[in-house]
Write a structure and sequence with these properties.
Pfam families: Methyltransf_16
Distance between the termini: 39 Å
Number of helices: 10
Shape: globular
CATH topology of the largest domain: Rossmann fold
Helix content: 10-25%
Protein name: Calmodulin-lysine N-methyltransferase
CATH architecture of the largest domain: 3-Layer(aba) Sandwich
Structural class: alpha/beta
Strand content: 25-35%
InterPro entries: Methyltransf_16 (IPR019410), SAM-dependent_MTases_sf (IPR029063)
Amino acid sequence: MADGVHASTGCQLWPSSIVLAKELLRRPHLVAGKKVLEVGAGCGLLGITAGRLARSILITDGDEEVVRNLEFNIETNKHVWLSKCPDMPREVSARQLRWEDVLESPWTEDQRAEVIIASDIIYGNWGDVVAKAFLNLLAPGGLVLMAASEDRRSGVRVFQEHLEMKSFRVLETKLSEPLGDFRIYECRGPSLEQVEGISESPLPQPSLLAAEDPENNNSNNNNKCNGNNHNNNSSDNNTNNTNNNKSPEGPAEQPVSKQLWRVVGGHAKGGIIVREGPLGALSACLKERLASGSLVQELESTSERLCYRKLAGEGPETGWVSFAAKGVALVTKEVGETGDELRSKQ
């Protein structure tokens, strides 16, 4: 701790920051090469970890004394990112950032972050305040990664609902760690094109913890891969639904597939190959790869290949991938669980 800094909540190491830091190291593509902002940083463990991977990381807190300690911790731990890639300059800095200032003065386009990271920052009934602040800090199409301890989630539901109303896709994952039980929220914002054409109705929200609605299976088989739908997104699918499938509340939500898969291959090549159809080399290859660490839903499969819809990660929204290549697994079942099994634990 820096000289002259007194112990406070902002100068303690909270378990949720450790959990999210481990998640970043396990899934580095989430922040690799990106402009990242940490809010409510406290000691700065999470931001310092991101400094190993991100193009730039601004580590912030609302308390001036905590920021002084952050600057001390950054200087003390700068070997973490300098030794990682000595030839690539990385920007790691700290500053004071208060919610009220952000609400009054939204950041300009060139200031906004591609990824915002945070842990245990929402207490009481001010989840909507945090959500509004994030909207003033995040670039279009950006990602919010937030961890919360199971016993410190008061206000998080309001935060989540506020972002969903702004057409964010929110993925909520429950983790059980030696340090306790936690939730990680991956909140993907709409692109600039989606923002400009946004409607009052929010986009469908895929969630590991949301209940399935079997009645949504009548949406013209939009969840089936047929080799021609790799460019479809959720808004396109909703447009193609028949009028009978629309509800007064908005577009019918896509059903959540039961089996979840994690991409474990492609580390050295920027991800695994995605194709338009299930015929292997006979099916056209998409330009973009599906990044290692991505989480996908199974839509259908053959003995050798999987048709997926992406829930989290980088790469095509949907397509076909191989289960294995040369005897090495490319995707694995996520902790051997299905969406139903995850929900049964709630």
